[in-house]
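Good morning C.,

I know you're traveling, so I'll keep this short. The sequence:
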Amino acid sequence: MAVSDTGSDVQLRQLEAGLGDHPGDEEPEEATMTLVEHLEELRGRLLKMLIAIVVGSIIGFVFWQPILNFLLTPLPKVANELPGQGHLLIQKEIGEAFVIALKLAIAAGIALASPVVMYQVWAFIAPGLTRKEKKHAVPFMLLGGGLFLTGLAVGFITLRYPITWLLGFGSQNFTLLLDANSYFTFVAYFLLAFGIVFELPLVLTFLSVAGIVNSRVLRAKRKYILFGLWALSCFITPGADPYSPVIIAVSLTILFELSVLLMRIIGR
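The tokens, ready to paste straight into the viewer:
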């Protein structure tokens, strides 16, 4: 009887050992890296990001003229009648046109390299995240990138309204020399404002995951929040035309409702 019990114990231990060694039960433990190894890995990934941006910038410089023409499309036809022998833009210094082409190329390079940059950032921080954090991180990154690109697209479509209004304001009293640097600075700030505003669902959803806010509170305070968003839309757009604030206010309303929906889904 004792021999039988001993044999059963041996079989039980063998069975437990076999289950514990099953490759699908646990994730393999990763080796701990030293601070120097972390810094070396960071340097390598930063170098890869820089190479991707440089390659993208070279491609952008090759096609800087089509990029320039695309960014000039929001200019109305009245801009063709501005002084300067029919030119839309002027340059004040020698080499300014080259500097502007270089800036456009770098901006295009950053845009083209953004998938590589996001992957390198993710590959660097992923080993330090738990399985639950990884589960939320990837959708958050995709959502943030998609919302930012959507904001840029909506901003570009809206851009012609403030430009038309500003070019026509005071035209009977002032002569405008449309400077290339000031024009592209205005375009950059305008598009950036729309891109940041469209991150509202990402911010609210992150606050919901962190337990700071919840959809029930937002629904209860909906009318006050929407009033604040509509008031804010009048100040975050560079132009003084009546169309841009309305467009961005409607966008904020849709984004707010989308945020509440996402928070309810995550809460469930």
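Safe travels,
E.
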